[in-house]
Design brief:
Strand order of the largest sheet: 20-40-39-38-21-33-37-36-34-35
Radius of gyration: 36 Å
Distance between the termini: 44 Å
Shape: elongated
Protein name: ATPase cation transporting 13A2
Membrane topology: Multi-pass membrane protein
GO molecular function: ATP binding; ATP hydrolysis activity; ATPase-coupled monoatomic cation transmembrane transporter activity; metal ion binding; P-type ion transporter activity; polyamine transmembrane transporter activity
Family: Belongs to the cation transport ATPase (P-type) (TC 3.A.3) family. Type V subfamily.
Number of strands: 40
Organism: Cyprinus carpio carpio
Number of helices: 36
Largest sheet: 10 strands, mixed
């Protein structure tokens, strides 16, 4: 009972399997949800365990290897499943996704006997048993019901008993990345199916007396394992160093004392004292008192520090996602803290999340345990390997029949038939397929683009739609003040081009004081827009020297900052409105709120005034209607349509009775008086228009997603070429239901803006006949309408997504929602942003690109050091180059196996085989070198409209492999028949088989032709235009081809040397015969090259025509065809109302 009482609200009781709940679920019903994971419990069964041990002994450990590959089989073979009501008997859990049949992992169930706590740890996160729910839930569920008021009550601190109890529940506050020992890594690496196959192959080759070849493969495998172990351990150590953060933290206890403890001891509910100089925060915490300047670049990639203010006292449920401006995140650097401690220095915060439940822990978890990539190329590669395995089975049966007919011993029959398997399934295939990605990653790094998820490089090739943030991405980060329009009576006054020319008054005070800047080392830090705004006024930012923040000049108020007018323009005595202004309270800007506000006082603490700044429409909604000028909307539309960034300002005088230190934001921001507009010019970056034009010519659809005004966004869309001069913009307005009306949806055409797109651009893009622009119109929608559309008009959402180009006033959550909705239409979506407000969308997109000065950011898979979007076409070109190269390498390795497979079977038929050094020469000298250097070719300079195919099992690829294989086998058989038909031909010794029969004429003829086939097929399947530069740009590849071609010609045409003897080649003196073999190889090359070009140019399209035209599998293409045939959509100026049932829902 004591433990239960001490846990406090939201932590009332941990649960056990056979007692009453010690932890009750504190969350409201609408928040209560278990983790979406299937859990099955198991317990060891003694006789099953011993049976498996005996089986492992009898199978020489192969059974344990199988259990290592398939853990579920090991659990089923040794354990018995239990239902949840027998939880106390369970030892292991098997975990799987709720909507999948595949099991993901096995974890051990932990039991705390003293508290009867049952839990397991999966991917770093602790799941505890809650009996009332009958399920395991994340431990963080216990803090999800905490209110802001409860967090403020926690400022008194936890007792040591409370802290100990909570630590048992939540575990230590550490993000622990496991770093395995070299011995453990070696054990896991050697048990990899690839290396097991290598060991099997080496034993087989040694048995067949291929000692040199087996020794070389063994040495290469050992080097490969060593490099792999070093890289894996290095990456784990680096990630552990980045993730693990242990510092000393000052914690307040319930006795009022402050105690210095290790950050490992922190638990949710602990009250921590943040020093004035800041610290590297080891947990997520809610800021309750004071202000903090924070560098969050590690999490977001955004290098500009952000200001955090204290959380207000209310009964609202606290959520870090909805209150990021009051949340200090783990791993971020607190630069300075002030106004929170007893002496006015430092700040006070309460821990809300620890370990892997923090924001940093979530990001580290996504790196450690990434979601599997659903990419067709990878799936098809595995299917093709299965096909090669079946082919190996056919070859094995054929070789057994041939070898038995030639009176070969059973031992040799087994060895030779199994050798076929090692030939047809190339052991170097996985390594060869990754070389293209490695080269692409290296080239991207050279151009300042860093990648933390290399498999996504290939996915870049399939991007069909790219979303762009506006400010700082398409347009310049900095803004120039264009002018100020102050309200005069019921109308706007003239535009004042420079705030320095404004008369002393509330507008000037608002411009100077409504910001969240702070001083660090005498330098103002914060939002570039606010820095520009303060600079334009000429006012100076200062902070009180008193640690308590008390400034006698402004009464007894605790002051955050003081704004002083220029010394040369100090007002005459008695003119109070232009005197210095002290900022007492700040309510920070948030993308979802679209506004910020401050509370200020004048000298002596008199004249308290609240100012609000934000989106003009939002600011006007908080103002008294009579204070908003009658032509507010037309004025705003005029400036926004010209591409200006417009901010609205308002004010309100506060009464003397108002407690300025505790007044709530809701009270401050109501019944305001509209002051005026600040107009700022945001220039489009010079690279943006060219990049958008390139993407549109390549049939890649660009979309703008911004938090700015919709008319400003449309203007920028026209300026950068997303919307062309001849195209209409149709605005979408959706409104939710109210007490007096139902939800409605309406489309109306805007008044348009002056086009700045070049006429030639229009002609070029129209000539392409792009499907997304064929309708001649674009839809523009704002965040409020988007929310209403998703909630009340889901049947229209897919159509609007198909034609939507501008999404304005979108919150960070809505940006993520938009990306996911587009993905449900089968788009491969890219997202480019600055990494701060776009963090969720960057991670949700198939390809996320963060424009950041950081070398790498966990905010997105790709980070570009360039400050413009020129990296986007580069990324797509590198992705296409990598995918096409991966295709070429896969086909080459497959053809290499098939060439060797055919040659060995032909030689088996003739009672001989390739020699030890012949295998070595082909596999390690010819094929390996060519496979490595052929992937070095860079991407094409142009972005072609056609995307490369991603399926290995498509008709062109399969028919190409099949026809090439037939031609290659025919060439080998022709070489053998030509040799046998010669007058000087001498049959080989029929009493000896295999390599013991070397040298002989049959083997030499096959060796000659296959050597040329390996070289020529690397040329045939190496693709160039339109995705890669032509072959001759790859100098290393061309050099290798010339060297190997010269080497093969020398081996064929010239007299015998020690090299010929080493390779066991038969000496043939007939020069006409030798030239004839080279001619056969040349003919083989010519026919294969011609065939490959015909297939590339669509020679097999006639087979597609035979089956008739099929509907596309991609939903967006089907929807586009439907819209193209519906010219009456969208219905202009006709209100639409929700239907009773939804056709398609996208959440």
């Amino acid at each position: 009972q004591d433990a239960r009482r001490s846990c406090g609200p939201g932590l009332d009781g941990v649960t056990s399997a056979d007692t009453e709940p010690l932890i009750k679920d504190p969350r409201p019903k609408e928040l209560s949800a278990v983790s979406h994971m299937d859990v099955q419990g198991y317990k060891w069964v003694c006789w099953k365990v011993w049976l498996c041990r005996i089986g492992a002994l009898c199978s020489l450990g192969l059974l344990l290897v199988l259990f290592n590959w398939r853990p579920r089989l090991g659990i089923l073979a040794r354990c018995r499943s239990y239902i949840r009501y027998w939880l106390k008997d369970i030892i292991f859990f098997f975990l799987g996704e709720a909507d999948e049949n595949e099991w993901r992992d096995t974890v051990q169930l932990h039991s705390e006997k003293k508290t009867q706590l049952r839990y397991y740890v999966f991917e770093g996160m602790r799941y505890i048993w809650i009996s009332r729910k009958g399920a395991f839930c994340k431990a963080s569920i216990l803090t999800e019901g905490w209110t802001c008021a409860y967090l403020h009550n926690q400022q008194q601190g936890l007792s040591k008993a409370d802290q100990s109890t909570r630590k048992q529940i939540f575990g230590a506050n550490v993000i622990d990345v496991p770093v395995k020992s070299y011995l453990q890594l070696l054990f896991e690496e050697v048990l990899n199916p690839f290396y097991i196959f290598q060991v099997f192959s080496i034993i087989l080759w040694m048995s067949d007396r291929y000692y040199y070849y087996a020794a070389c493969i063994l040495i290469i495998s050992l080097i490969s394992i060593s490099v792999s172990l070093y890289e894996i351990r290095k990456q784990s150590t680096t990630l552990r160093r980045m993730a693990r953060l242990i510092v000393n933290v000052t914690v307040r206890r319930d006795t009022g004392e402050e105690e210095c403890v290790s950050s490992e001891e922190l638990v949710p509910g602990d009250c921590i004292v943040i020093p004035a100089e800041g610290l590297l925060l080891p947990c997520d915490a809610a800021l309750l008192a004071g202000e903090c300047m924070v560098n969050e670049s590690m999490l977001t990639g955004e290098s500009i520090p952000v200001m955090k203010t204290s959380l207000s006292v209310s009964e609202a449920t606290y959520r870090s996602e909805s209150q990021p401006r009051h949340t200090l995140f783990c791993g971020t650097q607190l630069i300075q803290a002030k106004g929170g401690g007893p002496a006015g220095n430092g700040a006070i915060a309460v821990v809300t999340c620890t370990g892997f439940f923090t924001a940093k822990g979530d990001l580290i978890s996504s790196i450690l345990y990434p979601q599997p990539l659903d990419f067709r190329f990878f799936r098809d590669a595995m299917k093709f390997l299965l096909f090669l395995g079946l082919l190996a089975l056919v070859g094995t049966i054929y070789s057994i029949v041939i070898l038995l007919n030639s009176n070969t011993t059973w031992q040799e029959v087994v060895i030779r038939s199994l050798d076929i398997v090692t030939i047809i399934v190339p052991p170097a295939l996985p390594a060869a397929m990754t070389t293209a990605t490695i080269y692409a990653q290296s080239r991207l790094k050279h151009h300042g683009v860093f990648c933390i998820s290399p498999p996504r490089i290939n996915i870049c090739s399939k991007i069909s739609l790219f979303c762009f943030d506006k400010t700082g991405t398409l347009t310049e980060e900095g803004l120039d003040v264009w002018g100020v329009m102050e309200v005069s009576g019921e109308v706007f006054g003239e535009l004042v081009p420079d705030p320095l020319f404004l008369p002393p008054g509330l507008m000037l005070s608002a411009l100077a004081s409504c910001h969240s800047l702070a001083l660090l080392g005498g330098q103002a830090l914060g939002d570039p827009l606010e820095l520009k705004m303060i600079e334009s006024t000429g006012w100076e930012l200062t902070e009180p020297e008193n640690e308590m923040g008390l400034d006698s000049e402004f009464g007894k108020h605790r002051v955050l900052a003081v704004m002083r007018p220029p010394a040369s323009e100090l007002p005459s005595q008695g003119n109070s409105v232009s005197q210095p202004v002290a900022i007492i309270r700040r309510f920070l800007f948030s993308s979802s709120l679209q506004r910020m506000s401050v509370v200020t006082v004048g000298p002596g603490g008199a004249s308290p005034v609240a100012f609000i700044k934000g989106a003009p429409e939002m600011v006007a909604s908080f103002c008294l209607r009579e204070s908003v000028p009658s032509h507010f909307s037309p004025t705003l539309r005029e400036y926004a349509s010209q591409g200006f960034r417009v901010l609205g300002f308002a004010y309100k005088h506060l009464t003397k009775e108002t407690n300025l230190s505790t007044v709530e934001r809701v009270e401050v921001e109501k019944d305001m008086n509209f002051l005026g507009l600040l107009v700022m010019k945001n220039q489009v970056k010079p690279e943006s228009a060219e990049v958008i034009r390139t993407l549109k010519l390549a049939q890649l659809r660009p979309v703008m997603v911004t938090g700015d005004n919709i008319l400003t966004a449309v203007n920028v869309a026209r300026a950068c070429g997303m919307v062309l001069s001849h195209e209409k913009v149709i605005f979408v307005h959706a409104s939710p239901p109210t007490a007096s009306s139902v939800a409605s949806l309406q489309f109306h055409q805007g008044d348009g803006a002056v086009a700045t797109t070049d006429t030639q651009d229009t002609i070029d893009i129209l000539a392409q006949g792009l499907y997304q622009n064929s309708a001649g119109y674009h839809l523009a929608i704002n965040g409020m309408s988007f929310a209403a559309l998703c909630d009340h008009f889901p049947e229209y959402l897919p159509k609007i997504l198909m034609r939507g180009t501008v999404y304005a006033r979108m919150t960070p959550e809505q940006k993520t929602q938009l990306v996911k909705a587009l993905q449900k239409l089968n788009y491969r979506v890219g997202m480019c942003g600055d990494g701060a407000n776009d963090c969720g969308a960057l991670r949700a997109a198939d390809v996320g690109v963060s424009l950041s000065e950081a070398e790498a950011s966990v905010a997105s898979p790709f980070t570009s050091k360039s400050d413009n979007i020129s990296c986007v076409p580069l990324l797509i070109k590198e992705g296409r180059c990598s995918l096409v190269t991966s295709f070429s390498l896969f086909k080459y390795m497959a053809l290499y196996s098939l060439i060797q497979f055919a040659s060995v079977l032909i030689l088996y038929t003739e009672k001989t085989n390739l020699g030890d050094f012949q295998f070595l020469f082909f596999d390690l000298v010819l094929v390996t070198v060519l496979a490595i250097v052929m992937g070095r070719g860079g991407p094409s300079d142009e972005l072609h409209p056609q995307r490369p195919p991603a399926s290995l099992l498509s008709l062109p690829v399969l028919s190409s492999l099949l026809l090439h294989t037939v031609l290659l086998i025919l060439a080998q058989v022709s070489a053998l028949l030509i040799t046998v038909s010669q007058d000087w031909y001498v049959p080989l010794n029929s009493t000896v088989t295999g390599a013991a029969n070397l040298p002989n004429m049959e083997d030499t003829s096959i060796f000659t032709l296959t050597g040329f086939q390996y070289i020529m097929m690397s040329i045939v399947i190496t693709k160039g235009y339109p995705y890669k530069k032509p072959l001759y740009y790859n100098f290393l590849f061309v050099g290798a081809l010339l060297v190997f071609f010269a080497l093969m010609c020398w081996l064929v045409l010239f007299r015998h040397t020690i090299i010929h003897q080493l390779l066991k080649l038969y000496e043939i003196n007939d020069m006409s015969y030798k030239l004839l073999l080279i001619a056969v190889a040349a003919l083989n090359f010519f026919i294969c090259y011609l065939l490959e070009n015909l297939i590339d140019r669509g020679a097999l399209n006639c087979l597609h025509n035979l089956r008739g035209k099929r509907e596309s599998k991609k939903q967006y293409k089907r929807l586009d065809a439907h819209l193209a045939g519906t010219p009456s959509w969208p219905p202009l100026n006709q209100p639409l109302f929700p239907t009773q049932c939804s056709v398609i829902g996208v959440s």
